[in-house]
Amino acid sequence: MAALDQSTDVLLVVDVQNDFCPGGSMAVAHGDEVVPVINRLAQAFDHVILTQDWHPAGHSSFASYHPERDVHEVVEMTYGNQVLWPDHCVQESWGAELHKDLAIPHAELVMRKGFRAHIDSYSAFFENDHETPTGLKGYLAERGLRRVFLVGLAYDFCVRYSAEDAVANGFSAVVIEDACRSIALPGTVEDTEASFARLGIAKIQSAALNGDIAA
Ligand code: VGL
Ligand code: ZN
Question: Domains of the chain, with CATH numbers?
Fold first, then answer.
């Protein structure tokens, strides 16, 4: 693992929100355990960006929007297949708030995504049609940020798709495994691992950056 370059490296903290932590509507097992790991890691980076899943009430990715459908069923949308989720991260709700113990005062951008009623957005770069941009690509490019370290929730959805879009758009991507937790629907973690291997997305442990964190 090459040392960090503070002018071109950025930490992308994905969706560390109440609804993805224990007690939330779409809790990821042990989701809250990433918080102290991420707080510590953030000290190693000059540049930190947070993402926030930010859905209007009645969002089309919610199972409750689809009569006769259950959570985790897959439906066909105009832009492709969409897994249906419990209502989560509704704009201005407690569940959409970032975890209260996340402590990254120097984070320079909070990128909200998933706010269009009829399209979901797993990736921090593009919505699930893979073409509607969030603006993150332009932000990184304009700031000269070229290597994206990814942490957060969930490993097999929003972290995965963000890492894939990072490399597809000319950035390099490094996923810090112990700073992520998975939703783990059948096959989703395995698919994520296979995709990372195929695309050359590096996986590291947070300890690999210990040398970059001031004692
Ligand atoms: C996520 C599914 C739906 C995530 C967000 O943050 O991984 N997954 N919305
Ligand atoms: Zn969502």
Answer: 9-56+95-210 (3.40.50.850)
